Amino acid sequence: MIAPSERLSLPYTAETAAAVEPLYARVAHSVTRAEWELFAPYVARIEQLKRERNAVVLAHHYQTAEIYRCVADVVGDSLALAQAAASTDADAIVMCGVHFMAETAKLLNPGKVVLLPDLQAGCSLAESITAEDVRALRAAHPGAPVVTYVNTSAAVKAESDVCCTSANAVRVVESLGAPKVIFLPDEYLAAWVASQTKVEIVSWKGHCEVHERFRGEDVRELKTSTPGIVVLAHPECPPDVLAEADFIGSTTAMLGWVRERKPARVAMITECSMASNLVDAMPEIEFVQPCNMCPHMKRITLPKILRALETLQPQIEIAPEIAGRARLAVERMTAVGRDRA
């Protein structure tokens, strides 16, 4: 949505309507006509500026429909967006996600302009650990390599051997060939990875503020009250939630599972927009949404994207002494590939 304080003087004209009408079909199941008349002028102007600036818009699965399905050039999970950032020939990258995602894009494109429409779009996981914490863990576990979830700051990545996402975490851990691995910072993801491998996992007590609020008892109640429902859960959820799930996987893995299996009724235990964006793509499936909203992801709006493209601000910058080491950890991650299991 667009807050009143963000609205600019962009009229909804017949010309604007005609220019972006094909895009409305992408969101017709989740965006009303009245909402579209508010969004359309921004969409039209953003599309124009993308061409003028040679800019690409990358959007995470947790972005709202008018961003995810209308102005984004690439959508995906953290790994997919990192890979897209690494391969783009655009002059400017607009990251519709959170701060660590924009930092990752900058690490892989040090010579390009990387824009984050709102610098306050943070992440509870990234804030749960510091570079000093990583150094202390290395000292406590000599010789154990450090695998750091991509949901971390560049400073933390710089202290790590390799990064991972929830999509390829198991594969990254096992690629190291080590008997023990320090896995940071999500405690629940670490526990899930430990259940999938014989490698000893040393974890940290970081949590995602979205996923940690789900409870196993709520999932059990949902399955009891909604016959035939299939429950998919993100591995950042607590163990009692994962125990009740029919499928556990990253956002991209969940998306692939739904596309392949096409269940009649499904609940995705993750951020709200994940299911909302699939309503338009798969209207034949009933999406029950016992979801929680990420306040950081929702800081990204059409007016902020427009301002970023107009001003080429705010730009992401990373200190050179951090960037080189952090880049190496991210490049090692992108080389491992995606774990679809």
Structure report:
The structure is a single chain. This protein has 341 residues and is of the alpha/beta class. It folds into three domains: 4-121 and 297-311, Rossmann fold, CATH 3.40.50.10800; 126-207, Rossmann fold, CATH 3.40.50; 211-288, NadA-like (Rossmann fold, 3-Layer(aba) Sandwich), CATH 3.40.50. 45% of the residues lie in helices and 13% in strands. It is built from 15 helices and twelve strands. It has helices at residues 14-24, 33-53, 65-68, 78-87, 99-108, 131-140, 154-158, 169-175, 187-196, 216-225, 239-244, 251-261, 272-281, 302-311, 320-336; strands at residues 55-60, 74-76, 92-96, 113-115, 146-149, 162-164, 180-184, 200-202, 230-233, 247-248, 265-269, 286-288. Strands 2-1-3-4 form a four-stranded parallel beta sheet, sandwiched between helices. Strand 5 (146-149), helix 7 and strand 6 form a beta-alpha-beta unit. Helix 1 crosses helix 2 (33-53).
